[in-house]
Design a protein that fits this description.
alpha/beta; Nuclear Transport Factor 2, Chain: A; FAD/NAD(P)-binding domain; 3 domains; 19 helices; binds flavin-adenine dinucleotide
Length: about 600
């Protein structure tokens, strides 16, 4: 046995023995002074990171007696690099089986990740346990697969109520729907668009995913080996549509949820939706909002907006530069959508100006892939044996608090590698940042979900002046364009407000009421105290994939990677409730911000 394998095995044996004796002081003593225990559902029925020995001991004391963990066992070999010994392990609780990851420094735990993978007795029916598909023999009135499927579609939501209703059938709703289906949780996904995948199709014509294919796989059905690195939006739309069908989801397209209300007496939701021209009320026990993180448009209110004689749209309603050839377009904003739209307008022959109101982080796509993502999500990662599930768990094993110091050197390297590129952008007047603490793109995404551009070409247009740049604050909108606070004016036929999106609880306010939205509170962000992510520190993303302050109300969203990984957490929480497994939630997060 190698030394790292022996070290990890010994730590797990000591930890397992201490917690089974109920000696939580001894278990805590196995952690270093700077240490983290991140649990995804297995012990806490929550997504929770305990930071430092006192918090770890409190979490052990509160969760272990009930969870009754056992069988901590190393999986594969341990390894050692740069003074950190690490290894994978499996474990069991009274109700489930889990997988974990451990990092040791000087023999003491630095990071411990524990994740619930399946519930005992309610495992997904796969591999040797896959359904047979047919019952051999002869049976009167036998139902074919198609008939059974049609029966399900006909009855669910009418004669039979679903246990879960998911509002929104974009990637978040579809992926969660697939998880729930595999776990046998009756669910309906309501989607106001005509077809699954339309939320991608409806976006501007030139859009391709900014994340590479290795990061984007859907659960159960990875993309084929020749799938393009950056999926064009209509192609990903078609994939989502096919996936919805192949996963046999109860997906109601063309169905708009109009309102939802909790019925305290019946302990269920009343969800009213317009379905096939009729008002239908669904009565699920649980309601999931998968209505999109990038979906409640933030439209600023400047004086004079209604007086503008040209066309003005929020970026979410911009479709294509087709009709703007030879016209003057002003794009307000300097993040991803703003850059993509400027490039699209320029490609269509418009005269384009970008208005930059605050600094922006720009990371070149190639550099991002090489320096930030490539180790886990790339062809070379696949070749070195890091499959998607392993990559997701490695990612998850780094607690949010520990991430920024690990990210800073990556972006320092990026700064050096692309020094000439950044210098040309700055010369053109573009105001750059690398995040408040230099931790770059991924931290900005987690903290505020905005503030960056992954450069796939538009930066060159800004650097060489093909897209004009105007820095500064807007005073008001005039009949013919924008009046800036510095006294200058920008003439425009088209104004695109690429001004981002609001918190997902905005959807709760629209469909339930403001009181409930306030009770849920702000979604996303870590409480880092950096721009647009006010403290106090939360340790996990606010409200995502975990219990909220509103009973039986959940939030699902994020990029494809997050949806893939965290949908299992949410699906297992829902399945446990369906099967009446006790789910005592440890440290339900308080709400500090309403939006
Ligand atoms: C321009 C742009 C580029 C992006 N690029 C990437 C990328 O490269 N990689 C990546 O991973 N992510 C990217 N994202 C972020 C994110 O992954 C996408 O926004 C993605 O579409 C989010 O999926 P979702 O299912 O959470 O939300 P959406 O796709 O917005 O889906 C929400 C769905 O809810 C439906 N809905 C809303 N209200 C109701 C209602 N009342 N009743 C019924 N249905 C309702 C909507 O019709 C919509 O289909 C990008 C986002 C934008 C805006």
């Amino acid at each position: 046995m190698s030394a790292p394998t022996a070290q990890v095995s010994q730590w797990l044996a000591d930890f397992g023995a201490a917690v089974s004796r109920g000696n939580f002081g001894a278990a805590t003593a196995l952690f270093g002074d700077e240490s983290y225990w991140r649990d995804l559902v297995s012990f806490t029925w929550n997504l929770k990171t305990a930071e430092g020995p006192p918090q770890i001991q409190a979490m052990l004391e509160a969760t272990m007696p009930r969870a009754k963990p056992s069988n901590f066992a190393i999986q594969g070999e341990g390894s050692e690099a740069n003074g950190v010994t690490e290894g994978w392990f499996t474990f069991e609780t009274a109700t489930g089986r889990g997988r974990g990851h451990l990092r040791l420094i000087g023999g003491k735990a630095w990071t411990l990740l524990t994740t619930l993978q399946e519930l005992k007795g309610f495992e997904e029916k796969k591999r040797e346990n896959r359904p047979k598909g047919v019952e051999h023999g002869v049976f009167k009135d036998r139902k074919s697969w198609l008939e059974a499927r049609q029966d399900e579609e006909r009855t669910l939501g009418f004669a039979k109520q679903p246990y879960v209703v998911v509002i929104g059938g974009g990637q978040a709703g579809i992926i969660l729907g697939a998880r729930l289906k595999k776990l046998g949780v009756p669910a309906i996904i309501v989607e106001k668009n005509a077809r699954p995948g339309d939320s991608w199709r409806n976006r501007y014509k030139s859009l391709c995913l900014h994340d590479p294919v290795w990061y984007d796989h859907l659960p159960y059905m990875p993309f084929p080996d020749d799938w393009p690195v950056f999926s064009p939006k209509d192609k990903i739309g078609d994939w989502l549509e096919s996936y919805t069908k192949l996963m046999e989801l109860n997906y109601w397209p063309g169905t708009e949820c109009k309102s939802a209300r909790w019925d305290e007496a019946a302990q269920e939701w009343n969800v009213t939706a317009q379905h096939r021209g009729e008002s239908v009320t669904l009565k699920p026990k649980h309601l999931v909002f998968a209505t999109g993180m990038s979906a409640v448009p933030n439209l600023p209110s400047y004086p004079g907006m209604s007086a503008f004689k040209g066309t003005q749209v929020h970026s979410s309603n911009y479709r294509s530069g087709d009709e703007w050839r030879g016209k003057r377009a002003v794009v307000v904003g300097s993040n991803n959508s703003a850059h993509d739209i400027c490039a699209d307008l320029w490609e269509h022959g418009a005269d384009v100006t970008m208005v930059q109101r605050s600094t922006t982080h720009v990371a070149r796509s190639d550099s991002l892939m090489d320096l930030a993502l490539g180790g886990l999500y790339s062809e070379s990662a696949v070749k070195s044996g890091i499959d998607t599930a392993t990559a997701d768990l490695i990612f998850a094993s780094l607690p949010y608090k520990a991430l920024p110091p690990l990210q800073v050197p990556v972006y320092q390297q990026m700064k050096e590698r692309d020094a000439e590129f950044y210098s040309r952008l700055e010369k053109a007047g573009f105001q750059l940042d690398f995040g408040d603490d230099g931790s770059g793109l991924f931290m900005k995404y987690l903290r505020r979900g905005s503030g960056y551009y992954i450069d796939v070409g538009a930066s060159e247009l800004v650097a060489n002046g093909s897209v004009k740049l105007k820095n500064g604050a807007i005073e008001r909108v005039t009949a013919s364009g924008l009046a800036m606070q510095d006294g200058s004016e920008l003439q425009a036929d088209l104004i695109v407000w690429a001004t981002g999106y609001g918190s997902m609880n905005g959807w709760v306010s629209q469909l339930i009421d403001q009181t409930t939205a306030d009770k849920v509170g702000k979604c996303w962000g870590l409480g880092s105290g950096t721009s647009k992510d006010p403290g106090p520190w939360e340790g996990e993303l606010r409200n995502m994939w975990k219990p909220t302050q509103v009973k039986n109300l959940w939030m699902q969203g994020g990029n494809l990677h997050q949806n893939r990984h965290y949908s299992l957490c949410l699906a297992l929480q829902l399945k446990a409730r369906l099967e009446n497994i006790a789910t005592p939630v440890y440290a339900l997060a308080p709400v500090h911000h309403k939006s």
